[in-house]
Design goal:
9 strands; single chain; 8 helices; alpha/beta; Rossmann fold; nine-stranded mixed sheet
Length: about 290
Amino acid sequence: MTRTPTSNPWVRRFKPLSDSRARLVCFPHAGGSASYFLRLARRLVPAVETLSVQYPGRQERRREPFCTSISELADGIFEALLPQLVEPYAFFGHSMGSILAFEVARRFERSAGSAPVRIFASARPAPSTRGRGDVHLLDDATLLGEMKRLGGTDPRVLEDGDLLSVILPVVRADYQAIGTYACPAGASVRCPVTAMIGDSDPVATADEALVWREHTTGGFDLAAYPGGHFYIDENIDRVAGDITAVLAGAGEDGSGAGDASASPVTGGHRPVEAGAGGVRPASSECRHLG
């Protein structure tokens, strides 16, 4: 089946690949943009073609009004992706993007007659786990402190008043969207979910990430990497390798990657169990990779 190159402002295709084994749609974090996934996309070539979602109100869409609800964002993304995707495809969401990946997958399963072969839910507690809902109401100084706490933004940017005047409204709008999100009771997807966390992330602990298994009727696994909320930055090769290993089993009929037992996440992560001691290797053969 022939794919049509994207010209939709919601979707950025970094490098069209006509012979890729699968496609990966990436959903950015709050305050993030499509370009955050450029490094990951380069490492997935040539096996996986990467499409990255661009939310309104930033970069080339900076003149567009913000979306301040997850449902509004998910509806827009779904409509934009619908004519773009050819099976097999998977979703990768980071932080707020994990919730959007989940909600867009629900829309595909309900309305499109196709579905992702897997969701990679990165750095985010499960949809039914409620976090702080008031971050978007914080004053600028406190919101800036929250951004510094989580990392992921060049410290020089956070010291530039002109840049902050552009960035803070974007962050505030995204925090409003995620902070007011309420997962519908019993909401789940049929595709497998791989939860991915940094082992020192203050936002998404192993216990919170494990709750993702309640939101899928497919397989589930959990992978922990050294690092905090933006663990991807320091583990980019490992993350790319793990994604590629999982999607390598995806055939044109969508089979393979959806079978958690047939295509486990392997490589740079540590399989984990959760308990009173926090994140720990699932077996004595797994070692810390920091």
